[in-house]
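Give me structure tokens for this 798-residue protein.
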Amino acid sequence: MFACLALCAQGQNVLHTLTIKGAIIDSAAGTPVSYVTVAVEDVQTKSSIKETLSKDDGSFELSVPSGKSYQLALAYVGYKNKLIAIARVDSIIDMGKVTLAASTKQLAVVSITAVKPLMKQEVDRLNYDVQADPESKIINALDMIRKVPLLSVDGSDNIKLRGNSNYKILINGKESSLMAVNPSDVLKSMPASNIEKIEVITTPPAKYDAEGLAGIINIITKKNSFQGYTGNLSTNYNSVYGYRVNARASIKEGKIAYSGFVSTSERPYIGADYENLSSFYNPVPSSTYQTGTNFNGAHSFINSNELSYELDSLNLFSATFNYNQNNSSMGGSQSTTTLNNNSQVTQAYQTQNNGTGSNHGSDLGFNYQLGFKHHKNELLTASYRYNNSSNDQFNNFSNGQTINYNRPGYQQYNSAGTKEQTAQVDYIEPLKAITIEAGAKMILRNYNSDFHTDTLSSANQYQPEANQTNDFNYHQGVYSLYNSYQLKLADWAFKGGLRLERTNINADFSSTESTVDQQYNNLVPSLSAQRSLSAISSLTFGFTQRIQRPGITQLNPFINLSNPQYITVGNPSLRPALSNNFELSYGNFAKGSVIISTNYSFSDNTIQNVATVGANDVTTSTYANVGENRNLGIDVNVNYPFTKKFNVTLNTELLQVWLKGTYNGSFYTNSGQQGHIFTTTNYRFDSGYRLNFDIGFDSRYVLLQGRDNYYFHYNSTIVKELFNKKGAVYLAVNNPFRKFNTLDFFTKTNDFQTYNSNQSYYRNINIGFNYSFGKLKSAIKKNQRGINNDDAVSGGKN
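Here you go.
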């Protein structure tokens, strides 16, 4: 009897389930709608009990415990959200065909229909959601950029936007000292987990400065400024590039919020071989051959901070402070041999080099945002920022085992830097269908370079060389006004505007007692339009003019003699160039995403890297305003989830390039194809393991006088999630089958031909760990407008 009672009691405690199924169809077309988010919610708590995605035929099925009041929630981009009440019955509910109606207010943004979209295509840009990428916790920011549409990274870690080096990198919409000297090094030290998303702005609106021929890369860092606190700790060790430690934290208490991160890394002192071979035709045939080894190591430190205070619902104050420092040591040995036309040695020597370098930058910014009581989206913002960056170099050279070479040892010093002040006012007024923006801006920028070369005298003392000593000062003022409009209709979105810029330049050289004085005005238009073809596809067109102003690397007349046969020097007489850019792109987000983009650009008097040969067959590389540049290209990006666990991404580009120009009385022309392809696959196992495999190829790029290197790479990564997905440990193996990779460059003119080859470490193993913690509640407002100094380039070959 007791057994029967026990069985009856047990039967009374059996949990019954409620199974809900059906099929989702488009209310107008009557066709199935796949990958709709279907969630069963508790009516009282409004919390989601269980979620699924509709299948290719629109069907869905899920089960939940019975006995509660539920509602079914349906969500899909381009359709109205739908809630359906569910009766409290213990049975299977077949809802049959459930219709979804297209949204009458079609947004001018098309995004992937997934739980967390990976990409968005807006009217003037592409957004890559880094946090939605499963690899964000295990790779650095530079490797993440390889996956972003329209971007690529070559074998020397140079970032390209549509094959072009002329662009601007912003951090949170603002120019930062973090990117002032070598952005690739900074991004390698920054974990991708610190980044919220990456914007590729190919048609920058009028509010952005007109500089950057290819466009703007805006890296938006992660800010968990909510009520409470959150943090993340991560560390990794690379068998070649050393260790990195990173910490990020966000805290909000009341109306005050703080977010920041700190990172430190150590790159060991390692060396790699190189060789240079030059053949000279005029006036007497000869050749020069060099072999050697370069060593370098570095320690870097990065710190970023943001503090905000919300006085009330209309007044918001914020301040930012960033600091970065990189201390490096370098050295090497080199053997140089010069042969005449009969293969006889006419000159030979060996050089030893030891040096140090120090780069640091800091910036301090203040922002004020004013809202309006009767118009919540109307905003007035005022911003100020001060930026200071420097780059100090010292090298000591000694020569030995000489044949017909009598240059004594020498030392080189170069202290260069930039100080910049920016003030800006912006106003935005959103009306029913039109958003109006206007603003004014002033940039006061000072470049400086104090350099000298000291030669060892017969008295064994270093004496300065008069013709290689200079104190270079370059002052630039950019004053601008802009006005832009954005119109959103049911199926169309338009954005257009004009920007007027006035630029004043003054430069002086102590060694030659000469000056440069330039003033010019630019009226820069921009126009972009997006047509929504359906709820999951769109067509986008853009046109803009861009200005290429030379940066400090290109302007600095410092003569770099680290290799006496191949010297580099800037050109302070460079003038800006104007480019016209057109693009047309199609995006489809039915399952995953497909983005196809075509573009054409042309510009005259562009800044190109050029080389000439002087006395003693010394090759001098510099920059000059020469000739025309035409680019026609196509970009394809595909992100396809074969299943919920298996995903593949393809990012590829092909460009046809035409270059021509005249330099030092010689006419040059070059053309050809260039591009890149990168693909990544990842598979997630139920046990918390994830496997990733990446493979990529970056072709040789077309230069006015030759071609640069190509780069092929591949790697695999295994990740194990820990602590209920708050932590992860990973192991990555990169290019396992070869220790070194060869990067080579070609330069060819009527007077000479040069081949440069550098060895770089190829095989490396990376292990790491990261952990996130904290508890967050409500959010705090952020300034919606701020300083965006994207008006100067840092250098580059194209």
